[in-house]
TrEMBL record:
Species this protein is from: Streptomyces lonarensis
Entry's Gene Ontology molecular function annotations: ferric iron binding; oxidoreductase activity, acting on metal ions
Coiled coil: none
Chain ranges of the Ferritin/DPS domain: 25-162
Pfam families with a match to the protein in the record: Ferritin (PF00210)
PANTHER family reported in the protein's UniProt record: DNA PROTECTION DURING STARVATION PROTEIN, GENERAL STRESS PROTEIN 20U
Protein name: DNA starvation/stationary phase protection protein
Family note: Belongs to the Dps family.
C-alpha cells in the first residue's frame, strides 16, 4: 500500500479520505526529516576550521531531535492507518529539493548553507500545518511542536551568521553554495 493511499481504517472522528490526505502530507514531512537528519550528519562529519568543535557538538542534539521527529511523524501516519515509506529510494523519488551541495568546508560556511536548508524545511512545515489544521488538531499539534524546535535550531545556526549590526550574512542567498560563500567571507 502506498503511503498516500486511503487506509482501510483510521482514528475515530476522521474519514479514511481525510486520513489518506493527512498520511500523504505526513509522508512528505517524513522524507524532509529523514533528509534533514542525514544533512545534519553530513555537516557534522565535514565541518572544519576554528569553530569546528562548537558546530560539531551543536549538531548532535539537533540530529537526535530530528530523528525523533521523523519517528513521531511515521507513528502518527501509522495511527491514522497508513504505511510510512522510510527507504532512501522512496525519499529520493518523492523529494522536490536537491541534495545538500556543500562538502568539506569551514564551520561558518556550512552554517550559512544550513540556514537555507532550515528555511526550506520550516516553510514546508508551516504549509503542512495550514493543510492539516482544518482536518485534524492532533496532527496539527504534532507539526506545531516540531516547528518550534526547528525554528530554535535555525536560531542556533543564525546566531553564528549574524553581524554585530543585526544582519544575516546569508541574507538573500539563493543557493547553499552562495550562502556558504557569503557566510565564510
Amino acid at each position: 500500500m502506498a503511503a498516500s493511499a486511503n487506509p482501510k481504517y483510521t482514528v475515530p472522528g476522521l474519514s479514511v479520505e481525510q486520513a489518506g490526505e493527512l498520511i500523504g502530507i505526513l509522508q512528505m514531512r517524513l522524507h524532509a526529516l529523514n533528509d534533514l537528519h542525514l544533512t545534519l550528519k553530513h555537516v557534522h562529519w565535514n565541518v572544519v576550521g576554528p569553530h569546528f568543535i562548537a558546530v560539531h557538538e551543536m549538531l548532535d542534539p539537533q540530529v537526535d531531535r530530528v530523528r525523533d521527529m521523523a519517528d513521531d511523524v511515521a507513528e502518527r501516519a501509522a495511527a491514522l492507518g497508513g504505511v510510512s515509506q522510510g527507504t532512501p529510494g522512496a525519499l529520493v523519488a518523492a523529494r522536490s529539493w536537491e541534495d545538500y551541495s556543500v562538502g568539506r568546508a569551514g564551520a561558518i560556511a556550512h552554517l550559512g548553507a544550513l540556514d537555507l536548508v532550515y528555511s526550506g524545511v520550516i516553510t514546508d512545515v508551516r504549509a503542512a500545518i495550514e493543510q492539516v489544521g482544518p482536518i485534524d488538531p492532533a496532527t496539527e499539534d504534532l507539526l506545531i511542536e516540531q516547528l518550534r524546535d526547528l525554528e530554535q535550531f535555525q536560531w542556533f545556526v543564525r546566531a553564528h551568521l549574524e553581524t554585530s549590526g543585526g544582519e544575516l550574512r546569508t541574507a538573500d542567498a539563493d543557493t547553499e553554495v552562495e550562502a556558504a560563500r557569503r557566510a565564510g567571507s
